[in-house]
Design goal:
The chain is of the alpha/beta class and 234 residues long. The protein contains 8 helices and 12 strands. Helices cover 41% and strands 21% of the residues. Strands 2-1-3-4-5 form a 5-stranded parallel sheet, sandwiched between helices. It starts with a strand and ends in an 8-residue tail after the last strand.
């Protein structure tokens, strides 16, 4: 089966340009001209990547991204003319996986989309244990879902990947550089502080849903490691 891409942009010329460039990697492409249409399509179809503009006529890209992240793990590439560093950081913090500025080089767009698809497939292939259990916490690699006391938690793709990386190798200390190399698909926005933000979000979500302890321990000056149980402090 071909990988499926959803392109969300209010300009027909831009959508058509993206389709032309992505035709090189043999994918099926659907188009949405506004945020409402995109959300409706996401409810009906599973996509491998969503390419999302920010400046949309009804629901802006920020709101679309945040809404999607409440229930879905589809990788999101924000493709926008907004180049300010604050916009890029905001996009990544609310759940985008990558951020590309218009005008863009066609080769870079293709490379970034390919990297997002490849990263998801590599993570699925490399993990031999599809479901991990830690007291009331379950992490399912197949469905890319996390539950606490059988209640689903909405993690972003990056948050899920980081949590699964830690949990699949308990007690191993991961430096921030190791996490960047393992999780981030491209060199764009490879900032150490982004990892700390994602870890903070994971901890807050687990606590919000009643998980009994903080499973991600900070190893000061080095990085992070996963705790099997609340008693695992050494």
């Amino acid at each position: 089966m071909k990988d499926k891409i959803l392109v969300v942009d209010d300009e027909w010329n831009m959508r058509n340009l993206i389709k032309i460039h992505l035709s090189k990697i043999n994918v099926d492409i659907d188009e949405a001209k506004n945020g409402k249409e995109a959300l409706q399509m996401l409810d009906k179809t599973l996509y491998n990547v969503m390419i999302l503009d920010i400046m949309l006529p009804d629901i802006d890209g920020w709101a679309v991204c945040a809404t999607v992240r409440e229930t879905k793990n589809v990788p999101i590439l924000m493709l926008t003319a907004r180049s300010d560093i604050k916009d890029r950081v905001h996009g990544l913090n609310i759940g985008a996986d990558d951020y590309l500025i218009k005008p863009f080089a066609p080769e870079e767009l293709v490379a970034r989309v390919t990297a997002l698809i490849r990263r998801e497939k590599m993570i699925n292939k490399e993990n031999d244990t599809p479901i991990l259990y830690f007291e009331d916490l379950s992490i399912n690699m197949i469905s890319r879902s996390v539950k606490v006391k059988d209640k689903p938690i909405g993690l972003t793709p990056k948050e899920f990947d980081i949590l699964y990386l830690f949990a699949s190798q308990p007690k191993r200390v991961f430096t921030r550089e190791m996490i960047l190399d393992k999780i981030w698909a491209t060199n764009e926005m490879r900032e150490l502080r982004a990892i700390d933000t994602h870890v903070k979000n994971i901890r807050e979500k687990l606590r919000k849903y009643g998980f009994s302890y903080n499973p991600i321990k900070t190893v000061w000056g080095v990085g992070y490691r996963f705790l099997n149980t609340e008693e695992d402090k050494t």
